[in-house]
């Protein structure tokens, strides 16, 4: 199948590279210095699962030059969603799927509105990967999982074919029969993990070990559960307890991509994570003070490291 990676960053670059390495037909969309490096030196991945180098990849900043795709793997940061969605329109044929591995729960609403619901396949990913320098993706540990599925729960030909390609490429992949719930399940955990690791500026270990930050983490996740349930997502009422038990099983040094971005002075996705929970809670009449606090505290950093004005 013809795959196009829209946004060759930590997520798109890692999974696209694994698929290309396995011999699948993958084209990449990138920009800036990263694009230049990918053109000049190819795509490198540094990973505990094995480094790889693809010296010659099909890469462009203009998706319109790539012809039709069978599946677009959508991996831009959330603030770039609208622009990137417009750019991929020329890739769409009648049966083309677009699967976003972005975080958050609003991404597919944006894609549906711009591209049409028939093109949108739901997805989440579990990985810690970043652009280490132009042309080089660094994978931090051995986690590299994709979960995806059609919103109507059927196993379509495009979903099955992508699953087969992932398995062939050594990617841990799973088809979900209830992808909306799968996305919200990850969202509950991610909002807790990203909110706490970023505001505390520490990995999860000390946060879960301290009774006060542990209780706050539970409250953050519980607010997401309440919002989800109010919107009709079938999460159990005690799902935050389940996620807290899950938090106890992850490595103590685990952190979030948002914490990484904060430490590097990058723009933050907080408005689409805790901020989105607070906005939805307000609209639904559900109190979300913990998520509101995270959004308000991180607002100072949400556009990147604030400059210091000489006084
Ligand atoms: N990194 C991770 O480990 C994980 C990330 N996620 C989620 O995945 C999504 C992507 O994150 P991540 O991979 O870290 O992001 P990155 O910033 O590493 O990668 C995104 C890339 O897409 C490029 N890009 C954006 N818009 C365009 C465009 N219109 N044309 C060409 N290139 C474009 C960016 O360029 P530029 O730098 O110039 O903006 C950047 O190189 C986010 O929603 C994130 O939350 C989910 C799980 C784990
Ligand atoms: C929870 C995690 C680390 C899993 O991929 C993630 O999605 C993120 O930090 O953005």
Secondary structure elements and pairings:
Elements: E1 2-6, H1 10-21, E2 25-29, H2 32-41, E3 43-46, E4 52-54, E5 58-60, E6 69-74, H3 81-87, E7 92-100, H4 107-115, E8 120-133, E9 136-150, H5 157-168, E10 172-175, H6 179-200, H7 204-209, H8 211-230, H9 239-247, H10 257-263, H11 274-284, H12 289-298
Parallel strand pairs: 1-2, 1-6, 2-5, 3-9, 6-7, 7-8, 9-10
Antiparallel strand pairs: 3-4, 8-9
The protein binds NADPH dihydro-nicotinamide-adenine-dinucleotide phosphate and ketopantoate.
The site of NADPH dihydro-nicotinamide-adenine-dinucleotide phosphate has 31 residues, from helix 1, helix 2, helix 3 and strand 8.
Topology as a string of helices (H) and strands (E): EHEHEEEEHEHEEHEHHHHHHH
Radius of gyration: 19 Å
Counting H and I runs of at least 4 residues, what is the number of helices? Answer: 12
Backbone structural class: alpha/beta
Q: What integer is the average pLDDT?
A: 97
Pathway: Cofactor biosynthesis; (R)-pantothenate biosynthesis; (R)-pantoate from 3-methyl-2-oxobutanoate: step 2/2
GO molecular function, one term: 2-dehydropantoate 2-reductase activity
Catalytic activity: (R)-pantoate + NADP(+) = 2-dehydropantoate + NADPH + H(+)
Domain Ketopantoate reductase N-terminal: 4-152
